[in-house]
Hints:
With about 200 residues, the protein is mainly alpha-helical. Helices cover about 65% and strands about 0% of the residues.
Amino acid sequence: xxxLEQIRREIKKQLDKYRYxxxxxxxxxxxxLAMHCEISxxxxxxxGLLHDCAKCIPNDIKIELCKKYEIALTETELQNTAxxxxxxxxxxxxxxxxxxxxxxxxxxxxxxxxxxDMTMLEKIIYVADYIEPxxxxxxxxxxxxxxxxxxxxxxxxxILDDTLEYLNTRGGVIDPMTExxxxxxxxxxxxxxxxxxxx
Length: 199
Ligand code: DGI
Ligand code: FE
Ligand code: FE
């Protein structure tokens, strides 16, 4: 696996100024969450650095590359090109940046929609992407930022809930995986789950 510093230098060339700044924010926020949750800082920082590595590729090239690398895209992803960068990014993390750990590759692949029963590293990247210091426009940010360090599953649920509300009001096509993840974290935290469980 390449050194973090080497990946940082390479990724800087692939991103615009805003995206690079956001990427460093995600990397350091993921590091803080990893300290708190006692998982590998190096894995969290590597996944944070690479999570948006395919974001600045022009949309038509993204689709072309997916064809070339035989990455299957769903109808939803083809309709919403913003949903392609996690899958393509996961592929490039392995092929271009030498990432071998499947846990890191999965954290990149699921950073936009999430998925049910995520690993701690996957949740950390998903949450860090939303709360990093450069983000400012989402509702409830101060609350979610605090919640992230108190109960990461509840933070997942709140972020998914706010994201779906935002997409619904904006009329955006919702990826079935985002809904599935939302349902999973709602059940886990709201009904008979860790929050209000009877045990
Ligand atoms: O790449 P970033 O901007 O850092 O963050 P991201 O990869 O989480 O993408 C964020 C956007 O993705 C945000 O505007 C919400 C959107 N998103 C999340 N789930 C869905 C979705 N967009 C659509 N159309 N459908 C979804 O299910
Ligand atoms: Fe992203
Ligand atoms: Fe991001």
